């Protein structure tokens, strides 16, 4: 997931590690963060794999030089591969899709449509699962009535969020752009 982010951010131009960290922190929100201990080893790995190329940059006279990273052709190719990879159904699916959307301007309309379609299938899969849980909770005589009421409300809340997301993705697919 973070591999896609770093390569995607470098598509728009060279950046230093601190800026990459700040942009990711902003993009993912206040709860999900990448540690410095994860970011810099990944950057070093990318250097070793030839996906990025570092150079020293001094912002102002007498200022401390920063190591800035730019994407290589191999890095551009790897980014495209990551964008074409199918979405996996796991705890990271939402974030991976959001990152892919962030970089839709760097891929073909076919890759965008494929990503949207995969995400739609993921949402529909979850909606079917939620419907099954709703039926199970509704029909389970061993669940006390008060628990059932709040359990069904929680399930309804989740289903409504999924329905809203499904409708949004369907509109994006219809745009074909």
TrEMBL record:
Listed InterPro entries = Tscrpt_reg_PadR_N (IPR005149), WH-like_DNA-bd_sf (IPR036388), WH_DNA-bd_sf (IPR036390)
Tell me the keywords, alphabetical order: DNA-binding
Q: Where is the Transcription regulator PadR N-terminal domain?
A: 7-81
Q: Which GO molecular function terms does the record list?
A: DNA binding
Q: Name one Pfam family in it.
A: PadR
Top-rank taxon, per record: Bacteria
Under PANTHER family, the record lists: TRANSCRIPTIONAL REGULATOR YQJI
Instruction: Kindly provide the name given to this protein in its UniProt entry.
Output: DNA-binding PadR family transcriptional regulator
Source organism of this protein record? Tumebacillus permanentifrigoris
């Amino acid at each position: 997931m973070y591999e896609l982010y770093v390569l995607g951010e470098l598509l728009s131009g060279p950046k230093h590690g601190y800026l990459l960290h700040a942009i990711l922190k902003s993009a993912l929100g206040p709860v999900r963060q990448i540690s410095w201990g994860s970011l810099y080893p990944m950057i070093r790995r990318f250097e070793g794999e030839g996906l990025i190329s570092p150079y020293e940059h001094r912002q102002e006279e007498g200022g401390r030089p920063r190591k800035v990273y730019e994407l290589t052709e191999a890095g551009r190719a790897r980014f495209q591969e990551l964008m074409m990879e199918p979405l996996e159904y796991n705890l990271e699916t939402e974030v991976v899709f959001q990152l892919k959307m962030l970089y839709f301007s760097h891929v073909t309309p076919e890759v965008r449509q494929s990503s949207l379609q995969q995400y739609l299938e993921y949402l529909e899969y979850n909606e079917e699962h939620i419907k099954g849980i709703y039926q199970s909770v509704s029909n389970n005589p061993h669940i006390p009535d008060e628990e059932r009421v709040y359990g069904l409300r929680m399930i309804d809340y989740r289903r409504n969020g999924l329905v809203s997301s499904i409708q949004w993705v369907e509109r994006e697919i219809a745009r074909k752009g």
